[in-house]
UniProtKB/TrEMBL annotation:
Name the record gives this protein: Nucleoside diphosphate kinase
EC class name: transferase
Family designation: Belongs to the NDK family.
Encoding gene per record: ndk
GO biological process: CTP biosynthetic process; GTP biosynthetic process; UTP biosynthetic process
Organism encoding this protein: Thermobacillus composti (strain DSM 18247 / JCM 13945 / KWC4)
Binding residues annotated for ATP, in chain numbering: K10, F58, R86, T92, R103, N113
Subunit structure: Homotetramer.
Main localization category: cytoplasm
Origin: domain of life: Bacteria
Gene3D superfamilies: Nucleoside diphosphate kinase-like domain (3.30.70.141)
Length: 136
């Protein structure tokens, strides 16, 4: 189990003023906020980040949405970071996300689902490099 993960509050979460609330949840659970930055994602980076969904009918909308406003990107450190952050985030589709999870409490649709968390240690390292650069 890795010690860090990449988490990003998506444009709907930033727009709705949920950054403080979400950061608090991770801090209260014992994560260390190692890096954090408000940023705009370029279309190029968005297409790379969502490459596994290329060709799916929602790909264009997904890229439009994630580039529609600033996101709040974070590196969270802690034992079993990837797994624990995903458990706190909840299921992709808010219809399946348990109450008490971030998506279960805040997400309104499968697309505008408030937050992203890396799905493996390998993805976490790749996404940290992508969003924070090779030295992070
Ligand atoms: P995430 O897991 O962060 O990254 C892939 C995203 O694709 C996922 O969140 C959803 O927001 C989005 N997604 C998955 N399935 C659909 C769908 N059927 N329609 C629209 N967006 C989707």
């Amino acid at each position: 189990n890795g010690k860090r993960t990449f988490v990003m509050i998506k444009p709907d979460g930033v727009e709705r003023g949920l950054v403080g609330e979400i950061v608090s949840r991770f801090e209260r659970r014992g994560f260390k906020l190692a890096e954090a930055r408000m940023m705009r994602i370029s279309r190029e980076t968005a297409e790379e980040h969502y490459a596994q969904h290329k060709g799916k009918p929602f790909f264009g909308e997904l890229v439009d949405y994630i580039t529609s406003g600033p996101v709040f990107a974070m590196i969270l450190e802690g034992e079993g970071a990837v797994q624990l952050a995903r458990a706190m985030i909840g299921a992709t589709n808010p219809a399946n996300a348990a109450p008490g999870t971030i998506r279960g409490d805040y997400a309104r649709s499968v697309e505008a689902n408030v937050i992203h968390g890396s799905d493996s240690d390998e993805s976490a390292e790749r996404e940290i490099r992508r969003f924070f650069g090779p030295q992070a």
